[in-house]
Design brief:
- With about 290 residues, the protein is of the alpha/beta class.
- It has a single domain, classed as BirA Bifunctional Protein, domain 2 (2-Layer Sandwich).
- It starts with 8 loop residues before the first strand and ends with a helix.
- The strands form three sheets. A six-stranded mixed sheet has the order 10-11-6-2-1-12, sandwiched between helices. It has a three-stranded mixed sheet with strand order 4-3-5, with helices on one face.
- Helix 1 crosses helix 10.
- About 40% of the residues lie in helices and about 25% in strands.
- The chain is built from eleven helices and twelve strands.
- The longest helix is centred in the middle third of the chain and has 18 residues.
């Protein structure tokens, strides 16, 4: 899409602030539904979590993988995402979601290639913050072997996807994708800071020894933005600066104009219903 700024397709840009975990997932799904019905344009949403929350992938087994006693002790929320992938602790981060039709111009049909296209905005966002991010293609045997040791982990940032965003060889963003009703939803975490102790304490492991071993190796595999900046003797960043960098990154990558907007009344009503009936229900949270 080689368009000038005046010709760029307009997407909606929503900053929805902090919500509880059920509502965050419900809003993403409500936007998907509204977009599939042609009621809203493609949407980029930035959001945060109140309280800090653990989300698990759609196919994970909650009772086997989550230490609920520790989760309650820390006052963290809990939700199951509609997307796959592994556990993510949403705390000191910017969370994004991208909702766009599968038949959008130049959108690859394959999940892996679509992930690469949609993640280009993340790459440019990190670079706008002065970080030398790269997108690593793990399709090669040598790259797969390098990361194979992380394959059994329940932790999202411990386990790279086919295309992974890395800085200095460490994962800097965790994303997941689903497709429903002809629409792609990709959402993910952009870490400003990371509490490794909290993350490992709210997850179950086969043994204390395994937990400690994985925890020790984790800083070699994943890193947060401010940790990278501190290591480079640079000033830490706050959320508004990060939002600005990634808004710029996504607009440039998708060659679109991001027009500030809000969640519509209809989307809000559907989200409230989904939050109550689906994302807060034990049947969904503890599905097998």
């Amino acid at each position: 899409m080689n368009m000038t700024n005046t010709q760029r397709i307009q997407w909606r840009y929503v900053q929805s602030g902090s919500m509880d975990p059920a509502m965050n997932m419900a809003v993403d799904e409500a936007i998907m539904t509204a977009h599939s019905e042609g009621k809203v344009p493609p949407t980029l949403r930035f959001y945060a979590w109140e309280p800090a929350s653990l989300s698990i992938g759609y196919f994970q087994k909650a009772e086997e993988e989550v230490a609920f006693e520790e989760l309650r002790k820390r006052g963290f929320g809990f939700v199951r995402r509609p997307t796959g992938g592994r556990a993510v602790l949403h705390d000191q981060e910017l969370t994004y979601s991208l909702i766009v039709s599968e038949d959008y111009p130049n959108m690859p049909k394959g999940v892996t290639e679509a992930y690469r296209v949609l993640s280009e905005g993340l790459l440019l966002g990190f670079r706008a913050l002065g970080l030398q991010a790269e997108m690593v293609n793990l399709a090669s045997e040598s790259e797969k072997a390098k990361y194979a040791a992380a394959a059994g982990s329940a932790v999202c940032f411990d386990s790279p996807s086919w295309y992974e965003l890395v800085v200095e060889g460490k994962k800097v963003a965790g994303s997941a994708q689903t497709r429903q009703k002809g629409v792609v939803l990709q959402h993910g975490s952009i870490l400003l800071d990371l509490d490794i102790d909290a993350l490992f304490d709210v997850l179950r492991f086969p043994s204390e020894r395994v937990k400690e071993r994985m925890k020790r190796s984790f800083p070699d595999k994943a890193v947060a933005i401010n940790e990278l900046l501190r290591a480079a003797s640079r000033q830490e960043v706050k959320l508004p600066e990060v939002e600005s960098a990634f808004r710029q990154g996504f607009a440039e990558a998708m060659q679109v104009e991001l027009v500030p907007g809000v969640i519509t009344e209809e989307e809000q009503q559907l989200a409230a219903q989904l939050a109550k009936e689906k994302y807060s229900s034990e049947a969904y949270l503890f599905r097998r």
